[in-house]
Amino acid sequence: MLKAIKKLYLVEDSVLFRTSVRKAMEGSPYFSLVGESEDVEGLVAEITRTMPDVILLDLRLRKSNGMDIIKTLKSNFPKLKVVIYTMQADMKLFLEAIKRGADGYMLKTTHPQILSEGLRQVLEDKFITSPEIRTNVPVSKAG
Length: 143
What we know:
The chain is of the alpha/beta class. It is 34% helix and 20% strand. The chain is built from five helices and six strands. α1 links the parallel β1 and β2 (31-37). The mean pLDDT is 87.
């Protein structure tokens, strides 16, 4: 169980989804939104400055691809939990995110309460996915 408020950082190019996550986190007793970015440019510096516990990372951004920075984030910040936040319920993207080190894969259609609970679980070292994602492939972060 989480005992202290954990810091969340959001990388999302859609104002609508950023606003939605911000509002959901305002009422959360578990998370504080410590920063937001529209793109991954300058993200390593922002993460260094804000030191979040978890980052919600969109895959398809206007200027870049969130998938490309996962390995960099995980190697520079080994304790940082990286959760993909996307509209893409695509198995190839899902498996690639896992391969690169993502700690979760949540769809933007996920209810804010389920998202918040998922973020709590990822901080307890559990891999999380949205309820809509179903697979018979066992998820393993090893190898």
